[in-house]
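tool_log.txt
---
The assistant was asked to compare two proteins side by side. It first ran the structure predictor on the initial sequence, then on the second. Raw inputs and outputs are pasted verbatim so the downstream comparison step can read them without reformatting.
(1)
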Amino acid sequence: MFSKAESRKLRQDFWTSFGKSFPRKWILYNTKIRDFSFKFYFDKKKAMVSLDIEDYNIENRIKYWDKMLSLKAILTNEFLPDAIFDEAYILDNGKEISRIYLEIHNVSIHNKNTWQETMVFLNETMQQFEAFYYEYEDFIKA
């Protein structure tokens, strides 16, 4: 067991190490589309890279979700074959979003032995998401 302070320090150490190991500006934190963003996640059980559509305006969320569904075959055939599409993903806070994601299990931010595997996963997955997004950005934004 780790105290909250120890856990916080491990999280900080991981993300600092990730930034040093894979020094790259991840442009897609800001897609310029409101409530349409790419995210990294790593906890005690899994790591995830996701594209979240969080718009409170349900019509906008449906519009972007439909666009992503129309591109699903391209995304899964050419970029991320294991991508999971979840139209109604429930966050821990109870909020419903639409999410496209990839995750790996059996890794833990508290276990430094899994950090390298996780860093490679996050880096490679995000690069593929970015390549896909840049290729189809005009269609998604239209």
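(2)
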Amino acid sequence: MASHIGKLPVAIPAGVDVAIDNGTFSAKGPKGTDSYVLPEGITGKIEDGHIILTPEDDLRPTRARHGLSRSIIASMVQGVHEGFSKHLMIVGTGYRVVAKGQGLEFFLGYSHTITVNPPEGISFELPNANEVIVRGTDKQVVGQVAANIRKLRAPEPYKGKGIKYADEHIVRKAGKAGK
């Protein structure tokens, strides 16, 4: 019994170069480069435009690492080929964001502004003053940066004010009942 996810081959799209050297997987594409050290007990090979990972044994921890490795490699290939993005919306009167150098400056109703600088490999895009798009090649880093921005002013349930993901639905609560 092997990992169901780990058994799936990873297709290599056109324009992406991949290599496996001494247990290190590397991918290079139009959006950038990335590398990953395969865990102990997992070997990889490239056949017919696909990446195939095989476990050395059928023990439970090896099966878990097998599926994890395949998922990480699939995300890396997609990241260097297309990239990842998270779309955030800023809701609230007076809440806005402006570009400040490479980073962003948020006005979120506090007595001060909050400046966020992007880590390496991340870029910000501002379609307007109430939207932020976080882009990058590493799925985990893009998600973490978006989560950190959302945490600056999480949406509240009464008026829905705050920073939310574009596809997020805020469950609203009823306010005080009047007489």
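---
observation on (2): The mean pLDDT is 93. The radius of gyration is 21 Å.
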